[in-house]
Amino acid sequence: MTNDCTFSISTTRFDEDYTPSTNSRHTTNFANLARGENGRRNLRSAMTMMHTRLNELVQDDNQGSDRYALELDIISVDLHLAFDGADAAFPVIEILDVGIVDTTTGTRTKGIVGNNFSSYIRDYDFIVQLPKHRTVGIPSDFGDVHGQVFQRFVDSREYRERFSQPPVICISVSTSRTYRRRRNHHPVLGFEYEAEGKSITDQYFGKMGLGVRYFMPQGSVAPLAFYHCGDLLNDYSGLALAGTIATMESFQKIYRPEIYNANTAASEVYRPSLDNDNYSFPQVTYDRVERNRLATTQAEFTDVNLMQPYGSVLKRWATEQRTRPCETERYRR
Question: What is the pairing mode between strands 86-102 and 68-83?
């Protein structure tokens, strides 16, 4: 199957003029913000939040706090399968590519790819498969297929021709874990936190070849989870890290204001909670009910159109592969 699995990439600019593509996942947070009568206002407010946060993080020679701007592209990935007479294409992943513009010099700096992470197979795993195993325990092969599809994409010619570094996925910390602040401090990422034990999400991303570190940047009220391979602190520039923080912290303020727009910052020992009522709503409309409903619809779509016809082959392929550490050197040019 290794030779019969290929990928194609399409790109959509994310800005205040963004309109969801007919091929884009309907559950993506991008699409959620863009829908409805407040769509354009939502997008403009979200981009303003990101630009403002980026300039807060990058203060050198930035007296007006308006020197830098973000350029964001949604990267949509299709999996192409050709084996046993089949010739199928299926949308599997959407991630976000971040670029930073110096408006003073006109210089464009390549940021980090990954950031937001949306996946059909992950929806299937957590919505269709996981409930079946809650009472008897999660099987050891949970997430194997998804992990191998992701690793195969990151190893693919299509990925390496477009991106020079491995991805970093930046999401919310888990509400099922307690986090403790460590002494080490990074000039951009801020104070590091350490989790007490691994969450299901940590284990799932581990199948993708990604480890995790947690940092709370200066000016933030809660740590972010950075899923990465290689050396997070040294493989990416400070400006690139600032671009990811500005982008994903702004999204998290919209998605999970109870945590990331809280009125009290995380203490040395921190347990995030969606039951927190001491927070502020950002000036953006986000429909969680719609998002959850569409996630279920798309998990069922994945079951019918990918896992039922091709699941046995994908599972056999996954058992023949193994999760491996990401080798950042192979991306160097």
Answer: antiparallel
Q: According to DSSP H, which parts of 221-307 are helical?
A: 232-235, 238-255, 257-260, 288-302
Q: Residues of the chain with pLDDT > 90: what percent?
A: 65
pLDDT-derived band at 314 (thresholds 50, 70, 90) equals: confident
What is the spatial distance between Cα 67 and Cα 101, in angstroms, rounded to a whole number?
Answer: 8
Buried b (16+ CB within 10 A) or exposed e, 150-186: bbbbbbbeebeeebebbbbbbbbbbeebebebeeeeb
Indicate whether 291 pLDDT > 80.
no
Q: Let me know how many helices (H) and strands (E) the chain has, helices first.
A: 12, 10
110 φψ region: left (φ > 0), alpha (ψ -120 to 50), beta (else): beta
d(CA 277, CA 323): 40
Structure tokens at 261: 């727009």
Q: Mean pLDDT, to the nearest integer, of 108-127?
A: 94
One-letter amino acid for residue 184 of the chain = N
Q: Is the pTM of this model over 0.70?
A: yes
